[in-house]
Amino acid sequence: MANPLLEAPTNSSPATAIDLSQKASTFINSQSSWLSAIPYPLSLFINTESQEKWQTYENLFLACLRTGDDNTAYACLESLTNRFGKGNDRILGLQGLYKESTAKNDSELAEVLKEYEEILKNDPTIFSIRKRRAAVLRSMGRTSDAVTALTNLLDQSPTDAEAWSELADLYLMLGSYEQAIFCLEEVVLVMPNSWNMQARTGEVLYLSSEKLEGADQLRLLSESMRRYCRSLELCDDYLRGYYGLKLTTDRLLELLSTGKKSQQSSSDPVKGDLAPPSIDAVKKLNELATSKLTEIVRRSKSGEKGWDGYSEAEIIAARELLDRGTQKIER
Amino acid sequence: MAIAATTINILGIVFLSHAVYSAYEHSLLPSSSLPTPPSSILPHIIDPKINLPLDITLETLFSVFLLCVGVVLSSPELKPIQWNVWAGRLERSKEARVVKEVGVGGGNPYAVLEERPGFLDIRGRRKEFAGWVREGER
């Protein structure tokens, strides 16, 4: 049974966020029954607690904040605070979120930031607040401060994959590809099975290879291709992975067919670089990616059962990439 | 398939009960209290020392076979235990991504690494939402 209240509203579309926030008042009313008013010793016999309940409260809180329904959001926050206490790390983070979103101007936001620093002075181990602080710095446009905050955080907690990923995103925003790739490699080290992060690493490698020329470009491109291959190894029919694989192999084929022989020996085994792949292998991978992409687009378009999960935009992009390939052949 | 499996199960139960009942009835017959000839194949200790007719034995075996087949056929579909198959299903179908309860179901568990709820830019999200509303009004 699907329960839309349990889906985190952080990355959903505005339409689902508003749907969720409209369910808030009915949910809150349904929770305040006479059962919760029973005095202490008797209340022990009645179980009104469940994980779902508090997850729903948090999701509703986030959805209401997003849609600007601050009063309902505050009601949710209050229930959560009553249940888990003011000192709870997660609650502190949520309270910070509320204050941030109700801050009207930059000076009020700076006030929130000061409050975070005050909390961290007393107890620097509250990671939710440290993350919030970095996020506020980023949203205020103080990117380099955000980077410093994150590197400090990661010095003390180097296995925090979420923070590594955020740092990678920041570096990417600043255009420092090398650092971004390093951070993404750390993410992959902490969570080696995450197929989306493997693909993400491939994407950043591909982007950075566009800036380079010759042997370096070849090295990064083949690295990117290997990342995509790994993500496909971890996940069947991964549209993003096949898209990237086709993109990189197309580019690699161009490079390898026009490149000089001297490029082939550019890899340095001492540094741990692998030799660039052979043309035949790249060709095979390219054919595989093309046929798989065609299959995914076809099955998803025809609405086959069990193939409805791909996002519309991704399917359209894959189709365009395929069309570009066929046009080239016709010419 | 489900109907066939249930039919097989019911048939198996009916045959099994019938065989058990027949064996019981047979044991009440005066002829069954007669001393049985010692078995020629089985050793002395595990010789059951009864003379059940062959059709009851066959019926029991047949009903157990039916039940075995029925139970296997009526079991729910196996879940993928290979990582790539499981992950592929999450990517492919919406149905596999449905959140059933906290910690059960849901899409790619590593998607949080790209959504990063801990670093949620709530002000940006609010602005985006306000923009979406304004666009809808226009």
Secondary-structure element series of chain A: HHHHHHHHHHHHHHHH
Shape of chain A: globular
The portion of residues assigned to helices of chain A is over 70%
The radius of gyration over CA of chain A amounts to 25 Å
Show the largest interface: A-B, 59 and 44 residues
CATH superfamily of the domain at 103-190 in chain A: Tetratricopeptide repeat domain
CATH class of the domain at 103-190 in chain A: Mainly Alpha
Query: What fraction strand of chain B?
Result: under 5%
Overall pLDDT score of chain B: 86
Q: How many helices of chain B? A: 5
Radius of gyration of chain B from the CA trace?
32 Å
Task: State the secondary-structure class of chain A.
Answer: mainly alpha
DSSP E strands of chain A, number: 0
Question: How far apart are the termini of chain B?
Answer: 54 Å
Strand order of the largest sheet of chain B: 1-2
Oligomer: heterodimer
- Please write the string of helix (H) and strand (E) elements of chain B: HHHEEHH
Low-confidence stretches of chain B: none
What ranges of chain A have pLDDT less than 50 throughout 5 or more consecutive residues?
none
Largest β-sheet summary of chain A: none
How many separate domains make up the residues of chain B? Answer: 2
Throw out a few tags for this protein:
A: about 325 residues, mainly alpha, Serine Threonine Protein Phosphatase 5, Tetratricopeptide repeat, globular, B: about 140 residues, 2 domains, two-stranded antiparallel sheet
Fold and architecture overview:
The complex is a heterodimer of chains A (331) and B (138). In chain A, 72% of the residues lie in helices and 0% in strands. Chain A has 331 residues and is mainly alpha-helical. Among the domains of chain A are: 1-26 and 52-84, no CATH class; 103-190, Tetratricopeptide repeat domain (Serine Threonine Protein Phosphatase 5, Tetratricopeptide repeat, Alpha Horseshoe), CATH 1.25.40. Chain B has two domains: 2-73, no CATH class; 83-137, no CATH class. In chain B, helix 1 (2-28) runs antiparallel to helix 2. Chain B has five helices and two strands; from the N terminus they run αααββαα. The chains are: A mainly alpha (331), B mainly alpha (138). Chains A and B meet through helix 1, helix 4, helix 6, helix 8 and helix 10 of A and helix 3, strand 1, helix 4 and helix 5 of B.
